[in-house]
Amino acid sequence: MINNRISIKNVDFMYPQNGGENNRIFSNFSMEFPKSKVSVILGPSGCGKTTLLNLISGLLAAEGGTISCCSSSEAVCNISVLFQEPRLLPWRSVRQNIELVLNKHYGPEKSRETAAHYLDLVGLADFMDYYPQSLSGGMRQRAAMARAFAYPAETILMDEPFQALDLGLKINLTSLFARLWVEDRRTSIFVTHDINEAILLGDEIFVLSAGRPVKIIEHISNAVPHKERMLDSPESLSIEKKLYRLMS
Amino acid sequence: MKASTSKNENKLISILSAAVFLLIWKTASLRIGTDIILPAPETVFLRLLAISGKPEFWTAVGATVLRTVYGLIISFALGFTAGIACGTSRRVDAVFSPVISIIRTAPVMSIILLAMIWFKTDIVPVFVCILMIFPILTANVKQGVNGVDRRLLELAKVYKLSRSEVLKEITIPSIVPFVLAGLRSSIGVAWKVVIAAEVLSLPVRSIGTGLQFSQMNLETAEVMAWTVMAIILSWISESILDLVIKHRRWEAVPDDK
Questions:
Q1: Domain range spanning residue A116?
Q2: B190 part of a folded domain
Q3: Nearest-by-Cβ selection for B255 from A58, A81, A87
């Protein structure tokens, strides 16, 4: 049995403006995400992946059911989110953007050090005092990744963060994520519709159905350690074949 | 290199345009042949030099500058507060909208005449300036508040920023471009309105009073000299604001997807 960290139980949800029970996205939906692993939620565009992430992060409220994100001893848990876009404040430097979310937890001095440390890890040590608009799209997303990891969150949620990047940057950021994740192995949920990303990053891959209400149609575990994962290895090819069949 | 050449070309075109304007003015004044109707540009310039040698001229200019500055500062404070309140609460907006709409559409002359009944002559231009400018700034600030990037508010919610942090770090910086745009379009209006109110209310020291007395004495060159001074003041204030806008360290560019 997996040591549960995030558990979703009997959740109901539909967007009020869409109306009609036929458009109910989640009905009595339950799933569990294991602790200290990267869980990938894979599914076609528009299937409800981002909605699920928004329910977990608290940006949306479920109509019914429970979502528990942390151990019972903690009243409030911290979650960090890496969105599809970097969402950096344009009027703050890259470092100040990170300090802003850290200040409450660490105080000014440690926030400054922590921000600098993570910016160094993502290769932006020389660009900390730059404003976001002076950086490329890939650099901004790296800064957002540094913010997500620097934040003292037990769980990191990622909503197709590499979707808008070109292939080279996507590969670069995927491996950067894997490198950062290995440092403290925080529970992570990664939403994507990219099968290769799912294979490279996911320890547990959950495939969602295209129809409504959403259902989990497959759960695949990938036991190969992150560092050894290759897209052309027999294990990866076998998962890929299975995922292609499910997604097509 | 190309950009600076094009900038120089544009400067040259502007200088040429001003020269053509002066030429047309000079030609027209020669054709008309009387200074009471249209004095020549150099006559106006000489008259400006002559009146600017008197201390009363500068006390009048100073008084008008002060009234405009007071009017802008009070309008800014009121417009900023009302704009934030209307932008964040639909109920407050419902209360203020009709009032602001009435003030916006009321004729300037009506406001000036009423202000002359209610206030001392020194206060009239400031009051009229406030009533003219505050609705513009309120509308701009409200537009800024409504336009705050929803995605940044989501970010604030996820990272648990407090309400005061959201206001300080997201809402206020988001509306700065709208406030600056509002101020940019208000400054010119403020000078015009203050001087118009001064012309009618005749405070002891003011550009408007200078204009009115010159007109009563059929000193057309002096009317135009005061006008040139008002244009210079408006140009200086707009240039200062443009410098502030230009030297902002960031632009609120939309986040790339």
A1: 90-152
A2: yes
A3: A87
Decide if B151 touches A, using CB distance below 8 A: yes
Q: What's chain B's Rg over C-alpha atoms?
A: 23
Closest chain A residue to B251, measured at CA: A90
- pTM of this prediction? 0.77
Task: Find the mean pLDDT for residues B169-193.
Answer: 91
**Residue in chain A lying closest to B150 (CA):** A87
- CA–CA distances in Å: residue A214 to residues A49, A51, A211, B81: 9, 11, 6, 46
Quick: pLDDT tens for A59-78: 998 888 888 876 545 556 78
* Domain annotation covers residue A59: yes
Report ipTM (2 d.p.). Answer: 0.88
The proportion of chain A whose per-residue pLDDT surpasses 70, expressed as a percent, equals: 94
A100 touches chain B (CB under 8 A): yes
Q: How many domains does chain B have?
A: 2
Q: Express each pLDDT in B53-65 by its tens digit.
A: 999 999 999 999 9
Overall number of domains in chain A: 2
Residues 6+ apart with CB under 8 A from A126: none
Indicate whether B28 and B48 sit together in one domain.
Answer: no
Helix (H, G, I), strand (E, B) or coil at A164: coil
Q: Is A218 on the interface with B (CB under 8 A)?
A: no
Question: Do B73 and B117 reside in the same domain of the chain?
Answer: yes
